[in-house]
Amino acid sequence: MHTKPFVRIVARAPAIALFVISAASAAGDLAQKPELGPSELNVPVHGHQARVGQYGDFNSAAIAQHGSRHSGEVRQAGYGNEAEAVQHGHRNAATLVQTGSGNEISLTQSGRDNRADIGQLGNKLHAAVEQAGHSNSVIVRQSPLSPELQLRQHGNGLAAKVIQY
Q: Which residues, if any, are the signal sequence (predicted)?
């Protein structure tokens, strides 16, 4: 039975970093900074990059990468934030940034060459973003005045910029 390349990095502040790699020949290195800052996972076999930086308590981040050459980054500052990125296909890129408390981001990318940049500044913000297709891009900025966001991009070459203040 042949398994497809798969990378998952999970980090919870303040001091636990866990990752699992499930592929026949994949190997990775997890380097955590001594100040309990960013953890970085690089898997050179399939070109994946995943990076998580957390400051504060009870933050949770997960990046799951299926396919090849994805990049994902989660930066969290505050208390009780949750972020999850799932990437399928090839060369998708995601940056998720949360500052505040009780925020949630869920991102799913399917296809190739999709880009997502999602930022939350405030408390109890919820964003769900889905990209399916090729060469789509989305930029989201969310604040407390608009705490709920659901965005779907299905197609090719689509671009969206959502500023909620």
A: 1-26
The pTM (predicted TM-score) of the whole model is: 0.80
Q: Which residue has the tokens 């999709």?
A: 114
Q: Is the Cα torsion angle 137, 108, 66, 11 positive or negative in sign?
A: positive
- Average confidence score pLDDT of the chain: 81
For residues 13 and 86, the model is more confident at 86
Residues 163, 138: contact at Cβ < 8 Å?
no
Query: Higher-confidence residue: 68 or 8?
Result: 68
Three-state SS for the chain is CCCCCEEEEEEECCCEEEEEECCCCCCCEEEECCCCCCEEEEECCCCEEEEEEEEEECCEEEEEEEEECCEEEEEEEEECCEEEEEEEEECCEEEEEEEEECCEEEEEEEEECCEEEEEEEEECCEEEEEEEEECCEEEEEECCCCCEEEEEEEEECCEEEEEEC
